[in-house]
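Lecture 7 notes: from sequence to structure.
We start with the chain below.
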Amino acid sequence: MIKAANKDPLESLFVIGDEVNRELLRDILEQYVRLDERGNIYPLSSFYEQANKNKIIIVLLARKALALRIGTSEAISPTELHRYIEIPGGSLNPTLRWLAENGIADDDGSKYRIWPQAVQRCSELLKRKEENGIAGRNESEKNISMSIGEALKDIIRQGGLDEGKTHREIYEMIARRRPKTTINASYNVIMSFVKED
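Predicted structure tokens for the same chain:
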């Protein structure tokens, strides 16, 4: 009886090029987005409940799924990414750099894509309760990461502007959500929404 050649025990450590766990990719994305054959990404309501970092990860993963399925370009520039995620460049670019520095994304000539081997890590990052949506974070984290625009949208969504509020009351609502925001910046935003009494 001839013994079969021993398989190299290190074989399972090696990945083949851009090999991606498609089932895991589908499982991650199906709760946040829908895609079509033209390469469009349609965010679901659960997408909008996510922290900005998570939104960036989700869009990058959606681009990966589109590239695998229909052959579109996977890498995306910060400008293109901004079309999907309305966050300031001051938040977008540092997050993209963080993803690249931590081996999650490839920065290929100022265009970004998720490394195939990082899909599992993305799944873990998205599952972290403390980093999920705004509701899952403690008060100090909400205040640091929420932009003035997001604070206003949050106030409007909760019906805070339905009644006749004075500019001072609106300012106080924003200040509770963004205590580190400068008074002048907050005041200018408020004044663009309401007229002084």
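Points to note: The two ends are 96 Å apart (CA to CA). The longest helix spans residues 52-70.
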